[in-house]
Amino acid sequence: MSTIPTTPRPLIWQLIHDAVQPLGRETSNAEIKQILAQDYPDLNEGTVNCQIAICTVNRVGRIGYPENKKPRLANGRYDFLFATGRGKVVWYDPDKHGLWAIEETPDGLKVRRVDDDAEGVPTPLDGEASEPVDDGFGGGAFALESHLRDYLARNPPSTTAHGPLTLFVDADGRDGVEYQTDCGPADLLFLDRDGNFVVFELKLGRGPDAALGQVQRYMGWIEHHVAKGKTVSGVIVANSISDKLKYAGKVAPRVQLMEYKLAVSLAPVALQAASVGTAT
After folding, report:
1. Buried b (16+ CB within 10 A) or exposed e, 122-153
2. CA-CA distance, 127 to 186, in Å (whole number)?
3. Is residue 267 a part of any domain in this protein?
4. Is a pLDDT exceeding 90 seen at residue 220?
5. Considering the domain boundaries, does residue 209 fall inside one?
6. Total domains in the fold of the chain
7. Are 88 and 154 found together in one domain?
8. How far is it, in rounded angstroms, from Cα 102 to Cα 105?
9. CA 238 – CA 259 distance, rounded (Å)
């Protein structure tokens, strides 16, 4: 009995590449998934979202994936999309969008534009980074949500409900920074000391009560797909928690509400006096 040879399916990043390149215009994550589903209806949408993030040169969260764990100029196989807004991308053109790179810094890997020192260079995009700063409710606030996220990722917090936390890393090597779910990227995913999951949802200013539904969606997805029987809880972090959110949180026992405060300490510095040699 003869068998019909089958052609292996291309890698998902290659499918995305071949779907976006001929469009010649801005597209969306949703449209890309629709195009791919025409020939490959079994593709996991969460995986496609991850691959789009991996291949977007100005996406902050791309450094959370194994493909982007080393410094490099954005001129390789995984560098062909440019984010124009939340959920929107175009084909990456260095002449138009500038030359981007993943660079090693004292604070770890960073995504930045490297060919232009002039003012007005666009900030690397983050899926949740467009919320304005609201610092009128006591203390300072981070300028971008990605700053708060990166700080907590480098300095995992300890909460009264969960104790000390560690950043989650899955079997594929993806860490818990902007952890992709079918409901969107969870800002941070941690493990507590008992191996239970803790989902962080970050808001720059006053935490809106809609954040509760957002973090619960991520919690439900993690519980269904990742947790393997472990408990999943949530934490909403904002510079100021609104009363509406406090009322909503009162009947959501698995979600803890927390406010962050910034503090800056200054220390004087000066040049040391130059030593003068003595003649003999």
Report:
1. eebbbbbbeeeeebeeeeebbebbbbbbbebb
2. 10
3. no
4. yes
5. yes
6. 2
7. no
8. 10
9. 5
Separation of CA 133 from chain center: 18
Find the length of the chain.
Answer: 280
Alpha helices in 98-161 (DSSP H): 145-154
Q: Which two tokens stand for residue 32?
A: 């890309």
DSSP string over 173-221: S-BSEEEEETTEEEEEEEE-TTS-EEEEEEEEEEE-THHHHHHHHHHHH
Strands 177-181, 163-164: pairing is unpaired
Structure tokens given for 64: 């959370």
Tell me the one-letter amino acid at 237: V
Burial class (CB in 10 A: 0-12, 13-18, 19+), 268: exposed
Of residues 203, 194, 201, 202, the one with CA closest to residue 164: 194
* Rounded Cα gap, residues 61 and 68, in angstroms: 10
Region 70-88: mean pLDDT is 89
Q: Are 207 and 150 in contact (CB under 8 A)?
A: no
Strongest mean pLDDT among 49-53, 79-83, 117-121, 175-179: 79-83
Backbone angles phi, psi at 153, to 5 degrees: -65, -40
Burial class (CB in 10 A: 0-12, 13-18, 19+), 224: exposed
Q: Which two tokens stand for residue 108?
A: 């770890």
Domain for residue 128, yes or no? Answer: no
Per-residue confidence band for 279, with pLDDT thresholds at 50, 70 and 90: low
